[in-house]
Amino acid sequence: MRLDGKVAIVTGGGSGFGEGIARRFAEEGAKLVVNDIDDRGGERVAAAIEKAHGQGSALYARADVADNAAMSALVKRALERFGRIDIMVNNAGTTHDNGPMTNVPEAVFDRVFAVNVKSIYLSALHVVPVMRRQGKGGAIINIASTAGLRPRGGLTWYCGSKGAALTLSKAMAQELASDQIRVNALCPVAGDTPLLPRFMGGDTPELRAKFLATIPLGRFSTPRDVANAALYLASDEGAFITGVALEVDGGRCI
Length: 254
Prior knowledge:
The chain is of the alpha/beta class and about 250 residues long. The chain is built from 8 helices and 7 strands; from the N terminus they run βαβαβαβαβαβαααβ.
């Protein structure tokens, strides 16, 4: 059990990559705090983990990751239930529709940067002091995107938010290394998740074929792909890995 005795918070854990990460971590012995703003999804995932791994193995905690008070409450609830936090996965994310950058409303731009960037700042404010007090280090994983490494027009502001996530991850890794808190980023290519139609500007067989043609291994990413990479970075197997941006992309960034 590669995460036995560990406690992890996974934001956006009610679907997609977050659900995959939460379920995979639970398989390896972690206790999970599943966060989302979709109560139905978050409760479903937490219940499924408890059914598979025992009562008390997971908790659903609603919180808007872009809200300071909500993030503070999320961390407090995790501590009340499990007593510690070893792994923080900043997975919750959003995007704007694929299209001209000047067509994106200001409110949508603000929300993209609040969820994709500010959330990392807020999680650090509340989780880093906990990890420092515990005195045993920790692992922070920020789910970025290939869009932060291989930006393209149409998703300009989303690309910018993921580029910020990558730079933040590296700077955080350097600053927190003395505390043995490792910070890494994952860069998945698009998966067949609820955000896929927004990334592609629709969802048709033609659009899917066009996108898949840019991925050398010829398929979308899956939650399991991303979860396995996150597991490595969160586990002791990744104990000497910090400040990396790991591509989980079937070769798209080549």
